[in-house]
């Protein structure tokens, strides 16, 4: 299964099949840090931007899920990327006004979800895409 990198588990799922009998399963996630409330705050921001958002799994939860599925040779890698707040927000199905979500976003940060105000008045969100691979 392939999870879209800036979306939660409940969002777009697709199956990828290789030429061999083995199935490769890949998942991508935007990571958040645990233990300091930033995960909960990020979830509220994500749901404000997109009412269909469920949650993002942490890297550890993804690896554990792959292991429980019986996969082996599990590998994890990270890739930083950036999102423009306005473009990101406009792709969602908002449950909250854009100004409220922007203010909440700028009030803090989590690893993999770090806002940065730009001189032009825009906001860039620094993200980390996590890719987990395993073979059956």
What features would you describe in this structure?
It is a single chain. The protein has 136 residues and is an alpha+beta fold. The chain has a single domain (2-135), classed as Rossmann fold, CATH 3.40.50. Helix content is 27%, strand content 31%. It has helices at 38-49, 59-68, 85-90, 98-106; strands at 2-3, 13-14, 24-30, 72-84, 113-117, 123-135. Strands 3, 4, 5 and 6 form a four-stranded antiparallel sheet that branches. A two-stranded antiparallel ribbon has the order 1-2. A hairpin with a 5-residue loop joins strand 5 and strand 6 (123-135). Helix 1 packs antiparallel against helix 4 (98-106). The chain is elongated. The model is unreliable at 1-36 (pLDDT under 50).
Gist of the model:
This protein has 136 residues and is α+β, with helices and mostly antiparallel strands. It is 27% helix and 31% strand.
Total number of beta strands: 6
What is the H/E order? EEEHHEHHEE
Percentage of helical residues?
25-40%
Low-confidence stretches: 1-36
Tally the helices.
4
Class by SSE composition = alpha+beta
Radius of gyration from the CA trace? Answer: 16 Å
CATH H-level superfamily:
Vaccinia Virus protein VP39
Beta content comes to 25-35%
The total domain count is 1
Largest sheet: 4 strands, antiparallel
What's the CATH first level? Alpha Beta
């Amino acid at each position: 299964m392939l999870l879209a990198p800036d979306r939660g588990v409940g969002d777009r799922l697709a199956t990828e099949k290789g030429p061999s009998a083995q199935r490769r399963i890949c998942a991508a996630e935007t990571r958040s840090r645990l233990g300091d409330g930033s995960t909960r705050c990020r979830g509220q921001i994500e749901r404000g931007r997109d009412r269909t958002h469920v949650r993002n799994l942490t890297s550890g939860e993804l690896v554990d899920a792959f292991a429980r599925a019986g996969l082996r040779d599990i590998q994890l890698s990270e890739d930083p990327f950036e999102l423009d707040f306005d473009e990101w927000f406009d792709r969602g199905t908002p449950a909250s006004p854009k100004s409220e979500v922007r203010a909440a976003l700028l009030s803090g940060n989590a690893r993999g979800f770090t806002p940065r105000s730009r001189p032009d008045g825009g906001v860039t969100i620094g993200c980390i895409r996590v890719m987990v691979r395993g073979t059956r």
